[in-house]
Amino acid sequence: MQISFDSKKMKRRERRDKMFRVYSYAAIFMAGAFLVFFFGDIISTALSAFKQAELRVEVSYNEEAREMGGYALEEDLSYLVSRGFTRLIPNQIKQNHDLLGTSVEKWVLAESEVDQYLKGKPNRLRKDERKLVDKLLTEGRARLAFNIGFFKNGDSKLPEMAGIWSAAVGSFYVMLITLIFSFPLGVATAIYLEEFAPDNRLMQVIEVNINNLAAIPSILFGLLGLSIFINFLGVPRSSALAGGLTLSLMTLPVIIISTRAAINAIPDSIREGSLALGATRWQMVMTNVLPLSLPGILTGTIIGLARAIGETAPLMIVGMMAYIPEAPDGFTSAATVLPAQIYTWSSDSLRAFTERTSAGIIVLLAVMLVMNGAAIYFRNKYETKW
């Protein structure tokens, strides 16, 4: 039997193969370039948020300061100093009466327009105000210091006072509630469906609906949470409890599907060996199947939580977009989360909130990367290869 060889067809296939590789490399390059541009723009904008302008002024704790939050300076710099600082003076005097009648030279928070000017960004300072800031800079009385307030303050209408602490605490409470409710229920459901449920039409319908729930838009879970937890059960609106329960509904299908996949990956020989040694079906699941499938279960759970921590739409429905200046002190207190805080800052008209928006995105991405890294670590550490 003679095999004919068509050189033209071969060359045509080789050209197509080369073109396919070119298209593949081009797609990878474009994706990489987009990521570099995306992260480069966010990081370059966010870096300035980690520095904050400060002015060294002489603060006089007098009667006017106690009554109104005002203070006397050797030079009138009150319009360059943050109003957030002046509002704290009466409380400082109330907590320490010895301050009354004294004068202290200290570094205080500058107004946001001064901060933007020192960072070389567009601002609304007048020409005389810029000259005064330049004079203070020459005298060593103006500086850009590390913005510790960004990490320990809550939200504020003043950009120089705004921080992520209250949103970070709210995110922690929400994730804790999500984990407490979704993890045990999701794992138990997966064990029943995979090991104990009969193979009938009802179970097939349930499985199909679980798969469908994992793919529906997240905002629908917000509507479901509003209807069930707030309107029917009376859970406080805007609370971490309402947000956590709502995200539990969204995370539950992901945990069920990943747990079923991890359980299904266990060879039947493990089950048969355990049953042959006299173990009951429940003992076989608890002592053999569940421990061996734990890496896959943890991986799916962490990935589900990482997805939930970045959600905004369902939490908007349950009222977690509120202005929260203080960190919540419990699960039923009014709270917000990092994605909602980022959205609030991004919609503000003041330019100084732009850099805080990018800084909040960096913090949120760092949290998500840590969670995904933890999922990879647990999977590699406890994974059993058959």
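The above is record 1. Record 2 follows with the same two-line structure.
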Amino acid sequence: MRLHRKGVIGATLAVVAILAAACSSGGGTKTSTNTTTGASASATTATTAVHESITVASFNFGESEILANMYKDVLQKAGNTVTLRDKLGAREVVEPALQGGQIDLVPEYVGTVLEFLNKNAGEASSDLTATVSKLRDRFSPLNITVLDPSPAADQNAFAVSKATADKDQLKKTSDLAPFASKMTLGGPPECPTRPFCQAGLQKTYGLTFKDFKALDAGGPLTKTALANGQIDVGLVFSSDGGIADKGLVVLDDDKHLQTVDNIVPVIRNDKVNDAVKTALNTLSAKLTTDALVQLNKMVDVDKADPSAVAMTWLTQNGLL
């Protein structure tokens, strides 16, 4: 479960109030400067598929912007009118807006959003099918549909430098067992007590580290400390494009400590029809974690525009 995607509640009510004023309850407003319109309806006949007016939102980080642009593009190709509200904010802003009808569709993360909805009740697991089923149960009373999860996932992971991996022949997390007592673990300050961080490594893998260094949640401090040898093992996120850029090696979670966090479209029931489901599910099926890593590198490391990155990938993969 991604530790850095929980956001701060702070200004939630104020932001949602602004959203309510800015958006119609159907989410089809065209007042946003990011509004784009799909195919012309001038040739519509009685037998033409229903076209929806859909507002897609993203969280305020690059990967979510890429995904939201992908959703926008494939839905437009299917003839829908799409409004994009990118960088909307943290989950504490986005989810109330989705439930309230100010937005219609969000690229979500299976395990993280389930634990958000259930207030960290521990329902998410390493079983994708079971976790998606529980997520659908949580969203159903809110009139929100959970579509097919993608093979692409973005979850907690632990990495080492390539030099360390080569020296100690490390490929999976359990390989750390003979070495952990001489290693320093790095991660966010809360890592020592978190069940998916240091506490989980000790409980699930029996790993006790020599020391812990408080850094950030999979960010530049952790990756730089790994690359420079200031720590031996660090918490990262599996789809981070900066991992390869720093020459780091992600260890396989062979005992399944982490919950699944596959990407999944969640959409309001009144915006779902067969064409919308087909467009989004086809996209989800084609997207892999490896592809997501490369896309994230283009945006986060190379500073490419998320909308251009999304469109290029969709075109290359026959979706546009």
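The first strand starts at residue 35 and ends at 36.
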